Amino acid sequence: MTGTVHETAGQEQVPQFPGVRAVRCPFDPPPGLRALQESGPLTKVRLWDGSTPWFVTRHAEQKALLSHPKVSADVTRPGYPIHTPAAGGGSLSFILMDDPEHARLRRMVQGAFTVRRVEGMRPAVQRIVDDLIDELLAGPKPVDLVEAFALPVPSLVICELLGVPYADHGFFQDNSKTIIKRSVTPEDRAVAFGRLYEYLDGLVGEKLADPADDLLSKVAARVRDGELTRQEAAQMGVLLLIAGHETTANMIALGTLALLQNPAQLALLRDSDDPKLVAGAVEELLRYLNITHSGRRRVALEDIEIAGQVIRAGEGIIMPNDIGNRDPGVFPDPDRLDVRRDARRHVAFGFGVHQCLGQPLARVELQVVYGTLYRRIPTLAAAVPIEEIPFKHDGQVYGVYELPVTW
Ligand code: HEM
C-alpha cells in the first residue's frame, strides 16, 4: 500500500489511503497509519515538496535505522525529508549533525543531564510544582493549565539549570513556539531563530564576563578555553532552551487531558503512593501520546538493506514514532492507555546516538508532576468539552494550545 503524507505548510500531517476514514482520536496516530503498518514495515510516501522518502512504521525497523551508522541526521544533505520550506533554516546545533561533530558537542553538556545529576534536582522540581499548585489553588477558576502550570514547570527548571532569567519566559516561549510551528514561513522562522540566537549569544557573553554556577557558564568557559566557538555555544543554548521546555510542557498538558479522558487510569495514579507506578505511568504516557509526532527524519548515506527492501544512498527516511509506539508486536493492545503496562521500550525519546539528551530531566519533571497534581487537586476536571480544546495539529511537537480546567 502506498500513501501520501500531506505536509503542506499549515496543514495537519494525515496520510490518506483509499477506503480509510480520516476520523481522528486526538491521542491516536492518524487513522491511515495502522493500515500502513499492517501492510509492512516500510513503504514510500509523497511529501509536500513532491519528494518520496521511505516511511518506516514498525518499532524494530525504526530502532534499527535510528541506530544505523550510515543514516544521517544532517538536515542540509540532499534527500533529507524536511517538514516544510522553513524547516531547513537556522542551525539547531547537534540535534541535526552527525558524528564526530555531533558527539563532540553533545559531550560538552551531557554531564548536566546524567541520572545522578538530575536526581539531585528532584527536590527543587518538587518545590516548583508545589508552589505553582499553591498559586493555582489560590487563584480564580477556570484557569488555563498550559499557561498557569504546564509551561512554567519546565521553563523554570531549564532556566535554573542553564542560568537563563525566568523573567524572559514570555520572549523565549513565544519565539520557540514560532520555530516549531509547521505552518511557519521561512521568513518568520528566521526572525524567531535570530532573536533567540542573539539572546543566547548575549547570555554567553555575560557568563564569560561574570560566570555563575550554571550550565551556560560552563559552556562559556569552553569558549574561553578555545574548545567551542561563540556561535556553537549560542546555537547549543538555543537547542537546550527550546528542547528543555516545549516538549515537557506538552507532555504535562496533553498527559493531563488524556488522564481526564481515562478516569480509571487517573484514579490508579492518584490513589497510589508507589513511585514505581508513577514512573511506569510516565513511560506509558510518553508511549501513548508521542508528542514528537512528526517523526524522526534522516537520510541514507549508503545503500541499506532492511526488511527485504533497499534504501538507496541519498534517499530520505521518516520514522514516525507515534505508530512505532503503537506496534502491537511490541505493545499488546497498543491503542489502550494502561499505566500499569511495561512501556519502557517506547521510542518517544528516539533511539541511537541522538536519543534525547534531556530524558532523565523530563522523567523527573513528569514523575513529580503526575505524582503530585492529581493528588493535590483530586477534583481536577476539564472546564470545556474536548471538542473545544485546540490541539497542536500544526506543530512539530504535539499537544494542546490551551487546557481550561477547574476543580
Ligand atoms: C517529554 C519530554 C521530551 C521528549 C518527548 C523529547 C523527545 C526527544 C526526541 C524524540 C529526541 C530525538 C531527536 C532525533 O532523534 O532526531 C530528542 C533529542 C533531544 N532532546 Fe529531548 N525530549 C524531551 C525533553 C527534553 C528536555 C527536558 C531536554 C533538556 C534540554 C531535551 C533535550 C534534547 C536534546 C539536546 C536532544 C538532541 C540530542 C542529540 O541530538 O544528541 N529534551 N528529544
From TrEMBL:
<keyword id="KW-0560">Oxidoreductase</keyword>
<keyword id="KW-0503">Monooxygenase</keyword>
<dbReference type="InterPro" id="IPR017972">
    <property type="entry name" value="Cyt_P450_CS"/>
</dbReference>
<dbReference type="InterPro" id="IPR001128">
    <property type="entry name" value="Cyt_P450"/>
</dbReference>
<dbReference type="InterPro" id="IPR002397">
    <property type="entry name" value="Cyt_P450_B"/>
</dbReference>
<dbReference type="GO" id="GO:0016491">
    <property type="term" value="F:oxidoreductase activity"/>
</dbReference>
<dbReference type="InterPro" id="IPR036396">
    <property type="entry name" value="Cyt_P450_sf"/>
</dbReference>
<keyword id="KW-0349">Heme</keyword>
<protein>
    <submittedName>
        <fullName>Cytochrome P450</fullName>
        <ecNumber>1.14.-.-</ecNumber>
    </submittedName>
</protein>
<keyword id="KW-0408">Iron</keyword>
<dbReference type="Pfam" id="PF00067">
    <property type="entry name" value="p450"/>
</dbReference>
<comment type="similarity">
    <text>Belongs to the cytochrome P450 family.</text>
</comment>
<keyword id="KW-0479">Metal-binding</keyword>
